[in-house]
Design goal:
Structural class of chain B: alpha/beta
Largest interface: A-B, 190 and 175 residues
Largest sheet of chain A: 7 strands, mixed
CATH class of the largest domain in chain B: Alpha Beta
Order of helices and strands of chain A: HEEHHHEHEHEHEHEHEHEEEHEHEEHHH
Helix content of chain A: 25-40%
Number of helices of chain B: 13
Order of helices and strands of chain B: HHEHHHEHEHEEEHEHEEEEEHHEEHEEEH
Structural class of chain A: alpha/beta
Strand order of the largest sheet of chain A: 3-9-8-7-6-4-5
CATH class of the largest domain in chain A: Alpha Beta
CATH topology of the largest domain in chain A: Aspartate Aminotransferase, domain 2
Distance between the termini of chain B: 80 Å
Strand content of chain B: 15-25%
Oligomer: heterodimer
Shape of chain A: globular
CATH architecture of the largest domain in chain A: 3-Layer(aba) Sandwich
Number of helices of chain A: 15
Number of strands of chain B: 17
Radius of gyration of chain A: 25 Å
CATH topology of the largest domain in chain B: Aspartate Aminotransferase, domain 2
CATH superfamily of the largest domain in chain B: Type I PLP-dependent aspartate aminotransferase-like (Major domain)
Largest sheet of chain B: 7 strands, mixed
Number of domains of chain B: 2
Chain lengths: ~475, ~425
């Protein structure tokens, strides 16, 4: 990793590509054209439907399969996945996705329509039931709904459940408390559910300021949303006191599961006093992120909240498995059960690992983060951290990240949480070997101390050079129609 | 590594008070890869193999092999959201092409990368209407045939801002435009109508609905799907402000209800759009390059003032839909849509020819599915078909329990078996 990144030659035939060059398709100064620029065709729609219902024509790319295959293969070569290299994005838990789970997802038994009668989808219900129960155990929760189709959807669902619970108690509460270092989705989900968001400052140790929390809670507090370990990777050691403060005020405690990868086998949100939690199956349980989804964000709740969960839930009976509607269900947050195939892959991952394997996941994730932090020449102001840490860059963190691209890795999350100056929020995960962690450290260190001009010129070896996002936003062109 | 970190056991790195330490077991036994596959596949095999004529919001079309082979390339499958566009140009371009496909199908200027499913897309449309509408109205109108599941999701989405949801009548299987005209007032922020609708009928008077919405400064939201829109008039042409629906009819086979929410709207609402948008820009070398754009709408920047809380969406399924559409091309898409028209039409003719059945219940042109009346209790017919290995469903419609039948390219060849099962206890009339 010590080689200097080289300038990319404009010569299409350049064979002296630098090592660790990012995958790209680049030939003759041309990037892969849009499908519409290759061959489009306008067909007149000659339908058996009456003219007033139908369009006159449809104009879309028209290519034979070989050209379609080459197009997407080239696009894939311009994309960086976890099999291309490390993606140490803090809070994103980009771990290697075991390939066998894709085979399980391709199994014929997944091809079941949700409108089948319960008796005709026992395989589906059985798996849903097992996963519900397994997640409840892992979270220390009494009941789990698998339905929310992403982590943010899980937050929204959890908040709706909390609201229904308070309503049922005749308790009108209007505020959700969120620490300033929380994920942006916490704020947005609370707001979507109609709550006012109260921001909670951190203390000098990077944790919840208990005095500030005491001052913030009152009769209007519906919920406190916490990530633990928090986004700095720090365990909220006062969690029991925090829970007591919130509960004494009649509020509920919500656990954001984004950082659950550090707690497997070690601690359970339910045991810490959390009433509601979401799981990010696409983080903790290794289902592939797919370039931005699908994920899945099941939520777990304590006994008092179980009657408010979305419908349907699955239970075991003498005759097998059946769906049922909880007594005071909030209804649905997805038309069916969210992303079924993500549930299957996560379940397979959990079974494969077992208790010991899961605990080993967290131990290795925490060890890897600590090892990586010990190898980089950056200040890490807050600790002791677990599966992730937030380093502080001497230069603009965004520039540092762009420059790291030239070293064959995906950079960490940048400029967030804001409590650390020029934050580089780093989560290597358990699936990186020592050699890859050393590569990552080398990438960090190669960039440390680069002068500003060099940083601003980076990246140099990527598919595209630095992209001017401000001008793209000022002049939005969002489809090929807008390019004409 | 332990030495470098200065511990003798990784457990020492956990800064967790003893009082909240977990010292129990989950009780899960680790398995080999082979044994894990056997265990999970064994569970899945507990569902019987049935020929499904279901539908009702989740539709099966043949997905060409190339979609799996390309989308499963690990560079796509295992990548993260494109926050570093310089190394994710491939996925960004694919999403840009997906957005372009949706723009072409809907006629609207802006399409996002995806929502979770059609129900959450409708929920987001209601929230969009609440944000963009100038006047203070806050009632969303939906047809009385809106599936309960979608209604329930919509109720959750509209609960926070206190948007009311009310129904308007349908008559003869389609929107009762006169009744809607009587119902709509200036308190209405959005009118929703679907084509094909929940009964499988293509709505014939959506231009009138569009006019009614415009007259009352309400947004007109049309529900449809990516295959139907390949032949139907683009909703923009009859006044749609927003189109929601399912794009998972492309690229996504039956998968127990997974969806790919489609969301498009007029360009005026660009800065109020929920979800991710990919735009074309330029890189430092002056070449066209793609990037996530207008991110100041999104939760990671705007937090509680974001247009939506959505973060992880259905990007990989959008990629699959785009590949499927590219493979079909415009001819293939139109052909597939035509098959959705002729398949159900022919099936209805044949069912109608059976003694004791009326198909379709409603006049009008159908797409993929239709309701069927029968002399026997509909649930008995469903049971009888089930004995023959065929899955059908009943729906409550107009105070009656009716059969719902969905026919696509993937079950059309089994229509003979369906007819045999339906006719099992009746005499087949001479056709």
């Amino acid at each position: 990793m010590s080689q200097e990144p080289r300038e990319r030659s404009d010569d299409a035939g350049d064979s002296a590509d630098p090592p660790h060059q990012q995958a790209r398709w680049y030939a003759g100064g041309q990037y892969e054209p849009l499908l519409s620029e290759k061959r489009s065709k306008s067909v007149s729609v000659d339908s058996s439907l009456p003219d007033d219902l139908t369009r006159d024509e449809l104009e879309l790319p028209a290519l034979a399969e070989p050209e379609v295959s080459r197009h997407y293969t080239r696009l894939s070569q311009m994309n960086f996945g976890i099999e291309s290299g490390s993606i140490p994005l803090g809070s994103c838990t980009m771990k290697y996705n075991p390939t066998f789970t894709e085979d399980v997802a391709a199994h014929r038994g997944n091809r079941v329509h949700p409108h089948r009668a319960d008796a005709d989808k026992q395989g589906i219900l059985h798996l849903l039931y097992e996963l519900q129960e397994t997640l409840a155990t892992i979270g220390g929760m009494d009941a789990v709904t698998l339905q929310p189709p992403a982590g943010a959807a899980g937050e929204f669902t959890g908040i709706q459940v909390a609201k229904a619970y308070h309503d049922a108690n005749g308790d009108d509460r209007s505020e959700v408390i969120v620490p300033e270092s929380a994920h942006g989705t916490n704020f947005a989900s609370a707001s979507m559910a109609g709550y006012d968001v109260v921001e909670l400052p951190s203390n000098e140790n990077g944790r919840v300021e208990v005095d500030a929390l005491e001052a913030a809670v009152n009769d209007d507090t519906a919920l406190l949303m916490l990530t633990n370990p928090n986004t700095l990777g720090l365990f909220e050691r006062s969690i029991e006191e925090i829970a007591e403060i919130v509960h004494d005020a009649g509020g509920l405690l919500y656990y954001d599961g984004a950082n659950l990868n550090s707690l497997l086998g070690k601690a359970r949100p339910g045991d810490m006093g959390f009433d509601i939690m979401h799981f990010n199956l696409h983080k903790t349980f290794a289902t592939p992120h797919g370039g931005g989804g699908p994920g899945q964000g099941p939520i777990g709740v304590g006994e008092a909240l179980a009657p408010f969960l979305p419908t349907p839930q699955v239970r075991e009976t003498d005759e097998g498995y059946e769906t049922y509607e909880p007594d005071h269900s909030i209804g649905r947050v997805h038309e069916f059960v969210g992303n079924w195939l993500v549930l299957v892959k996560a379940y397979a991952y959990i079974l494969r690992h077992g208790d010991e394997g899961l605990e080993n996941v967290s131990e290795t994730a925490v060890l890897n983060a600590n090892y990586l932090a010990s190898r980089i020449e950056y200040e890490v102001p807050y600790g002791p951290f677990h599966h992730e840490f937030v380093a502080s860059a001497d230069a603009d963190a965004g520039d540092v990240a762009k420059s790291m691209l030239d070293h064959g890795v995906h950079p960490p999350t940048t400029k967030w949480p804001e409590i650390v100056d020029e934050a580089l929020m780093t989560e290597p995960t358990e699936t990186e070997s020592k050699a890859r962690l050393d590569d990552l450290a080398a990438a960090f260190n190669a960039v440390a101390g680069m002068d500003e001009d060099d940083l601003a010129e980076s990246p140099r070896t990527t598919t595209a050079r630095r992209i001017d996002q401000a001008s793209a936003a000022r002049n939005p062109r969002l489809s090929w129609h807008a390019l004409e | 590594m332990l030495d470098a970190v200065g511990v003798s056991d990784p457990d020492e790195l956990f800064d967790i008070p003893g009082s909240v330490r977990f010292d129990g077991d989950y009780g899960i036994e680790a398995r080999s890869e082979r044994a894990t596959r056997a265990a999970v596949e064994g569970i899945l095999d507990e569902s019987p193999d049935l020929t499904e004529f279901l539908g009702g919001g989740h539709y099966d079309h043949y997905v060409p092999s190339v979609v799996d082979h390309l989308s499963l390339r690990s560079e796509f499958l295992t990548s993260y959201t494109q926050y570093q566009p310089e190394i994710t140009q491939g996925f960004l371009q694919a999403l840009f092409e997906f957005q372009s496909l949706v723009v072409e199908l809907t006629g609207l200027g802006v399409a996002n990368c995806s929502m979770y499913d059609r129900a959450t897309a409708l929920g987001e449309a209601a929230l969009l209407a609440d944000r963009v509408r100038q006047s203070s109205g806050e009632t969303v109108l939906v047809p009385d045939d809106l599936p309960d599941r979608m209604r329930s999701v919509l109720d959750n989405y509209t609960d926070g801002p206190g948007i009311g949801v009310d129904t308007y009548p349908t008559d003869g299987g389609t929107v009762d435009v006169d009744a809607l005209a009587d119902r709509v007032d200036d308190d209405v922020s959005l009118i929703y109508a679907a084509t094909p609708n929940a009964r499988g009928v293509l709505e014939p008077e959506l231009d009138t609905v569009g006019d009614l919405a415009a007259d009352h400064d309400a947004l007109f939201c049309v529900g449809s799907d990516a295959v139907a829109l390949s032949v139907l008039e683009p909703p923009e042409s009859y006044g749609a402000d927003v189109v929601v629906g399912d794009a998972g009819v492309l690229g996504l086979p039956t998968t127990y209800g997974m969806g790919l929410g489609l969301f498009a709207c007029r360009e005026d609402f660009l800065r109020q759009v929920p979800g991710r948008l990919v735009g074309a820009g330029e890189d430092g070398a002056g070449n066209r390059a793609y990037t996530l754009t207008l991110q100041t709408r999104e939760q990671h920047i705007r937090r509680e003032r974001a247009t939506s809380n959505i973060c992880t969406n259905q990007a990989w399924l959008a990629l699959r839909a785009a590949i499927h559409a590219a493979w079909l091309g415009p001819d293939g898409l139109v052909e597939l849509a035509e098959e959705c028209v002729t398949g159900i039409e022919e099936t209805c003719e044949r069912i109608d020819a059976l003694d004791g059945f009326t198909a379709p219940v409603y006049d009008g042109h159908h797409f993929r599915e239709a309701l069927v009346d029968c002399v026997e209790p509909a649930s008995d017919v469903v049971d009888r078909c089930r004995e023959a290995g065929i899955a059908l469903r009943t729906v409550e419609d107009g105070g009656e329990e009716r059969l719902a039948v969905c026919v696509t390219d993937t079950n059309r060849e089994q229509v003979d078996a369906l007819l045999d099962a339906l006719a099992a206890e009746t005499e087949v009339r001479a056709v």
